[in-house]
Amino acid sequence: MNKLCVIGLGYIGLPTAVMFAKHGKEVIGVDINDNIVSAINNKELYIDEPDLYDSYVEVLNTGKLKASNIPQKADAFIISVPTPYTEKKECDLRFVISATKSILPFLDKGNLVILESTVGPKTTVDVLSNIIESAGFEVGKDIYLAHCPERVLPGKIMYELINNNRIIGGINDISTQKAADLYGTFVKGELLLTDATTAEMSKLMENTFRDVNIALANELVKICEKLDIDPYKVIELANKHPRVNIHQPGPGVGGHCLAIDPYFIIEKVPEEAKLISLARKINNSMPDYVFNKIINIIGSIDNPKIAVFGITYKGNTNDIRESPAIEIIKKLSNSKFNVEIFDPHVDIKDICGYKLKNFDSVIEKADLLLILADHNEFKNMDLDYIYRKMRTKIIFDTKNVIKDKEKFDGVLLKLGFNNFNKINVYEEIASTKENY
Predict the structure, then answer these.
(1) Residue 258 gets which letter from DSSP?
(2) What is the rounded CA–CA span in Å between residue 141 and residue 174?
(3) Looking at residue 435, what is its pLDDT?
(4) Lowest-confidence pick of 123-127, 168-172, 297-301
(5) What angle do CA 360, 365, 371 make, to 5 degrees?
(6) Domains of the chain, residue spans
(7) Helix axes 196-227, 274-284, angle to 10 degrees
(8) Whole-structure pTM value
(9) Which of 32, 77, 132, 268 is most buried, taking the most CB atoms under 10 A from its CB?
(10) Is 226 part of the annotated catalytic residue set?
(11) Catalytic one among 203, 305, 331, 389?
């Protein structure tokens, strides 16, 4: 299989297309977004992903990767389009269905179709298979079909595409083998051969496991606040046990995977997925939890200015999909607070009506520095400089990026500490407020 057609050129589709092109395949990347197609053909990279740019430019220069609005004839078709959820928290298959239908005029007997998009169980056998067979093909014989979910971490996509184990789930054995042969082009990790439905469920459970674990950490934060215990020390000590790995708490869960995938299981078996549903509720409650803490912190300050650092759901990316930071900013906006936002990784004009500004402008005369993303830039900031610029010296670090408390001349607050409601904190706040 020398010619591939990759449908969907987002955070997963583009790196996948680049990887195949870098390893000798002729790749046509397809996207319905004219701006994306134009950017690729102009060698402009629109995704903030380490180690992607050099390979991206290389395959464009060699002509191994080209972009188009419509598919072309190919040996294999890889569908990597978004799968959001509906208002009812059900898997929205519109893009998957549209992408599958778009390749029908270009299919020939012997072609391989691979779905990489994360979907609910039985989507490959019940939806894609029926669409392809509606065009007169026999799936598994004329057209080979497989589900091969991505399992990479933003910020490490290029490395993990190569080195992570890859689940290969075919509609039948020959489809599984055809897909395995294709990914064997560059994957150094183990190729895990299975059926399509098991592959779908495995991917969902990978992300659901993490969502449930984060919910446990976030529930721990609330428990420790009531009991006046440091949750981070609890996690540190508990994780010294060889069979314990509690995740880190935070302002919520975002991204296309953890915040969405569990719903695809709940949709299929709502009565059985009770723990998964509860974890979703806990993590969805965190923006409200953080917002209420902000109200407690700044309640005694006249006309407070809030400096928000970071709006992405994850550190060191420009991905704001399902970001809990956006939910928190919306709540601040509805309360008509004076908010200014800085994010070194995001190149957009405004969020929720607030313009993104530069570092110095955002912290100037601020009463609260609110950290909502764990970018590397926030881990070793010059706190003396920041405190000199602020009006009231308070940091609320929801991502636990600031480690050395001894360096602080102001008030440092983190998730789960009961000192939000202690009078001595407000005495500290009053003492750190500059007169001007």
Answers:
(1) T
(2) 9
(3) 38
(4) 297-301
(5) 65
(6) 3-194, 286-432
(7) 50
(8) 0.87
(9) 77
(10) no
(11) 203
Quick check: is 405 catalytic?
A: no
Q: b/e map of 136-154 (b: 16 or more CB within 10 Å)?
A: ebebbebbbbbbbbbbbeb
Dump pLDDT digits (tens) for 340-363.
999 999 988 788 888 899 999 999
Q: Choose, from 257, 293, 305, 414, the residue flagged as catalytic.
A: 257
Tokens 């799968």, located at residue: 83
- What is the radius of gyration, based on Cα positions, of the chain? 24
Res. 408 pLDDT band, cuts 50 70 90:
low
Cβ–Cβ < 8 Å for 221, 196? no
Q: How confident is the model at residue 373 (pLDDT cuts 50, 70, 90)?
A: very high
| pLDDT at residue 85, as a whole number | 87
CB 76 within 8 A of CB 114: yes
Do residues 132 and 97 lie in contact, with contact meaning Cβ atoms separated by under 8 Å? no
Q: What is the DSSP string of 75-121?
A: SEEEE-----B-TTS-B--HHHHHHHHHHGGG--TT-EEEE-S---T
Q: Which sign, positive or negative, has the C-alpha torsion 17, 22, 24, 28?
A: positive
- Over residues 23-67, the pLDDT tens digits come to 999 999 999 999 999 999 899 999 888 899 999 999 999 999 999
Q: 286-432 adopts what CATH topology?
A: Rossmann fold (3.40.50)
